[in-house]
Amino acid sequence: MYLEELELKNFRNYRTIKVEFSPQINVLIGKNAQGKTNLLEAIYVLAMARSHRTNNDRELICFKQKDAFLAGRVTRKLGSLPLEILLNRRGKKAKVNHLEQARLSQYIGHLNVILFAPEDLLLVKGSPTVRRRFIDMEFGQIDPRYLYNLTQYRAILKQRNNYLKQLQQKKANDLMYLEVLSEQLATFGGAIIVKRLEFLAELERYAKEIHAQITQGNENLSFKYESSLKEDLKSTENEIIADLKKGFANLQPKEIFQGTTLLGPHRDDVVFEIDQKNVQIYGSQGQQRTTALSVKLAEIELMKSQTGEYPILLLDDVLSELDGTRQTHLLKAIQGKVQTFLTTPGLSEITQKLIKEPKIFHIEAGT
Ligand code: ATP
Ligand code: MG
């Protein structure tokens, strides 16, 4: 798939623009603070109905304006599809084919994006939150069901944590109600974990291959799902749900004492290993970067295999963070098949590595 055109009104520092993109490589050039990242962010918002850098939609609206509007046309195998997002102080509306979508989980998935920014090099080095966010954002785009389960899970988790706090402070004492919440949480939690295991196994296969190419067969990358469940992770959804329920029963006094939920996918993590050693702990800087790059590139292939089409790729300032070999691998992996938007302060180094002329956009103060 690719994004044919984009129209923005009052989005960040853009007043009104309408641009047509190349289905291949689009290069955004400009000095600092001119709007390069804002443009990538706009594409991300059009895909995900939310920003990758803020939870507050209001920040996306141009200063002193009441609302922002984003529209794009996506070309997919089945034809071309208009997407629209309207943001104002009261909230947002998302339309597919000019029809407003009641649930954002129905909107997401029409334009699939993978964003790669310098922070993503933290995928390996960073906290489990970074990895969970990565998994949830990417798998959510592939599978609307995953996204739905996740939304439900988060809502119940919030309720359950509130109730645990009330129990902790002796403002409530209904343990039956806690059990109802535990049961619901286990049901959605089990569904989430099962999907994560399935997608991670496939992602691992691609990442292994890509990593071996980058390291010329010298390193063997593998993943390990680290569950907050004490027992070994079972493989079927029902078994996992049963284990979660058992876990909640065992942990009850501890959870009430701490006033929070200690078990479930929101506490799980993925460990990346090279030759069976945790890269986060034992890996060098270079190994951590290569692992992050392999995982990101693998995600492109996972999306292709699950949805039948390649996603689009947003690269914000990453090329300058990678050395020559890794730059070459990245560009080789995407050229000719993945529509790419990349920001750079200057053209010189990358154009030599591109097989085809990119479409170049000079960005200055939101134009
Ligand atoms: P760099 O090369 O430093 O990363 P950039 O071109 O990526 O720069 P952006 O992050 O896209 O820069 O744009 C930053 C500019 O957008 C800032 O000058 C900021 O003041 C402006 N900006 C951010 N939010 C808004 C908003 N809501 N309304 C108007 N302008 C905004
Ligand atoms: Mg930027």
TrEMBL record:
Cellular localization per UniProt: Cytoplasm
* Domain of life according to the entry: Bacteria
The principal localisation class reads cytoplasm
According to its record, what are the GO cellular component terms?
cytoplasm
Check the record and name the InterPro entries matching this protein. Answer: DNA-binding_RecF, DNA-binding_RecF_CS, P-loop_NTPase, RecF/RecN/SMC_N, RecF_2
Coiled-coil features, chain-numbered ranges: none
Residue ranges annotated for the RecF/RecN/SMC N-terminal domain, each copy included: 2-343
* Any one biological process term the GO annotation gives: DNA synthesis involved in DNA repair
List ligand-binding residues for ATP. Answer: 30-37
GO: which molecular function terms? Answer: ATP binding; single-stranded DNA binding
Keywords in UniProt for this one?
ATP-binding, Cytoplasm, DNA damage, DNA repair, DNA replication, DNA-binding, Nucleotide-binding, SOS response
What this chain does, per the entry, is described as: The RecF protein is involved in DNA metabolism; it is required for DNA replication and normal SOS inducibility. RecF binds preferentially to single-stranded, linear DNA. It also seems to bind ATP.
Recorded family membership: Belongs to the RecF family.
Under what name is this protein listed? Answer: DNA replication and repair protein RecF
Gene behind this chain?
recF
